[in-house]
């Protein structure tokens, strides 16, 4: 799990940095959410607008955006 979290954090950091993103959102189950956050660069973590420690994969698409409002 630690290795996966590091890979995800690396990818997020690259995307946010490369695209000059001002804000982004994260939803992941708690088991991997915390390790992802721990592995993010501080400059990227600061731009995180909302973090949801939940599995939203089966959430109806009509309800999905409401979690990030």
Count of domain modules: 1
Beta-strand percent range: 5-15%
Largest sheet: 2 strands, parallel
The number of helical segments is 4
| Low-pLDDT segments | none
Widest beta sheet: strand line-up: 1-2
Judging from the principal axes of the Cα atoms, what is the shape? globular
Number of strands: 2
Helical amount: 40-55%
C-alpha termini separation: 29 Å
Report the C-alpha radius of gyration, rounded: 12 Å
Derived structural class: alpha+beta
Mean pLDDT: 88
What is the N-to-C succession of helices and strands? HEHHEH
Written account of the structure:
- The protein has 69 residues and is of the alpha+beta class.
- The chain has one domain (2-57).
- It has helices at residues 2-18, 30-39, 42-45, 61-64; strands at residues 24-27, 48-52.
- Strands 1-2 form a two-stranded parallel ribbon.
- It starts with a helix and ends in a 5-residue tail after the last helix.
Q: What is this structure, in a nutshell?
A:
The protein is of the alpha+beta class and 69 residues long. The chain is 51% helix and 13% strand.
Short descriptors:
single chain, 2 strands, 51% helix, two-stranded parallel ribbon, 69 residues, alpha+beta
Question: Helix and strand layout, with pairings?
Answer:
Layout: H1 2-18, E1 24-27, H2 30-39, H3 42-45, E2 48-52, H4 61-64
Parallel strand pairs: 1-2
């Amino acid at each position: 799990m630690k290795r996966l979290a590091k890979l995800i954090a690396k990818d997020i950091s690259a995307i946010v940095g490369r695209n000059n993103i001002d804000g982004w959102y994260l939803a992941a189950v708690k088991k991997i959410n915390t390790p992802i956050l721990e592995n993010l660069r501080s400059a990227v973590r600061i731009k995180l607008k909302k973090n949801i420690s939940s599995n939203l994969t089966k959430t109806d698409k009509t309800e999905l955006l409401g979690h990030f409002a």
